[in-house]
Amino acid sequence: MSLMAKLLGTARTVRDLPAAPAPGTVLAEAERLRVRLGERTVLDGADLTVRAGQVLALVGPNGAGKSTLLAALAADTPAAEGTVRVAGRPAGEWSAAELALRRAVLPQAATLSFPFPVEDVVRMGRAPWAGTEREDEDEEAVRAAMAATEVTEFAGRPFSALSGGERARVALARVLAQRAPLLLLDEPTAALDLRHQELVLRICRERAAAGDAVVVVLHDLQLAAAYADRAAVLHGGRIAAEGPPAEVFTAGLIGEVYRQPVEVLPHPAGGTPLVVPVRQR
Amino acid sequence: MTTTAFRADLAKGGPQDESPARRSPGRARRLSLTAGLTLGLIAALVLLCLLSAGIGAYRIPIGDVLGSLLHRTGLGGAELDRVGESVLWNIRLPRVVLALLVGASLGCAGALMQGVFGNPLAEPGVIGISSGAAVGAVASIALGLTFFGNWTVTVFAFLAGLATVLLVYVMSRSGGRTEVVTLILTGIAVNAFAGALIGLFIFFADNAQVSQITFWQLGSLAQATWPKVLAVLPCALAGLIAAPLYARQLDLLALGERPARHLGVDVERLRIVLVLVVALLTAAAVAVAGIITFVGLLVPHLLRMAAGPGHRFLVPGSALGGALVLVAADLAARTVAAPAELPLGVLTALFGSPFFFWLLRRTRRKQGGWA
Hints:
Chain A is of the alpha/beta class. Chain A has 10 helices and 12 strands. By secondary structure, chain B is an all-alpha fold.
């Protein structure tokens, strides 16, 4: 019977539930990571450390390898060289079920083959906990995630009937409901209006304050400067600079990496750096 | 640990919700809907089976059918006269049971396949799995093979069906998804190739074999016997029992392969197991009834419209619905033109094809074109 259940993949394995990480614990790291997609070497010796309690922004021009680095940290894309560790163990050694308890991933585009209602989509985020003691949190986690992303009002609507921005928020709600200690978000703000961009980054901050590690791919340097504890600037498959945004976002570095001259001004209130392109007048 | 963070956000202006333990009204409504639908389907199925067992050239009132059934199971009731008993137990009941098994297999296979391909137009008949399985079956008839005795046709149908599912799967997928156009075109190619192979076997077969093959190619349950029921029972039951175990994972697969993996689904294994299950179910149906199309398309669609796309209801529901449709279709096939009999496959295709047209147009409209 147990062999049968194992074969059918329905055995309820007793898994070790990850404990809440102490602030500063390394939840994921890439070391001299090289990743090839087809012929192209997308990442070429990238080093990154992701710590609990921090928001880490990945920024850089198109094609710099941000999404690939995120996918490598998510254990989606295998390393050609170098290592990726999640929660202290090489990414390839975890099973899919074990990883699902340790990291949640928001993909760039949210798609759904069948018109599930919004609430069911968010509830899918609870699937990894089925059969564990934390299954009891399900209702609470779903409700809280929907409230935080402001999707509760259309909980009953089919996902296919939503606008792009609404879909993006539902996808984020699903990822939040998973309640994994490591959050990997690929451009969560891309489809969102101003208010919801701020809302999403506030959620990132709250999750970090609660002890989780958040890695977020962003295009908007202002958002990265305002909300991230650290920023990593990717350039040609490597990390060109990594550190607090105020130190990393310099006119020289940003101008060179993006091939676009910029000015960096301190915000009049608070002093977070504002990155402004130099424009012809 | 993270609840406090959400609490803060909730307090800021999240809507006031009831206690977390309570189910939301939408979910509760859907649960009672699926429960009602399931009971309704079962009731309709039982009634239709009893009716079908009684209706025919030799009429048996429904009360007598029930009586004889109870008598044989030792729960009272009364035996019929010799002719009635023989008609009921040797002709009608094997046919009804076979219709149940074939219909359930096709309905369930359709629901599974649509889930695996993430594509609502996938169906064993449309994408060529049925014809693939038919090639195996026809080969075993035409070549007069008998190494597995009574199970020979089933075994060959299964092997050929399995090879076809794998082929279609590999051919129609690119970049982790299956586009409608690719899938349908692959189906056309596979159907054409399978048709050619079947034609070739017919060419080499003798006259008796040819009439056996043609009859069976049109899809029919007219030669139902208990040994045939036994021949497909293991395949059909194994598939029908295994399928609902994967319902939850199929729901997650709707998000796409990567997101499903992020939620802990071993996608590779899931796919392999489900492809096997689909091949089992299709082979079971094709081996005894020939090619019966559109049941696996129509039934899951109607149920999805009625009760939403959740596979925990959809997979077993489609088995029930498929059985219901096929028992009804077979009853119609043998009664509307009595004493002649319409081929069952012709009948289902007659009703199924217009539905497929409608579905194609709707899918096209939603996507805004194919290209």
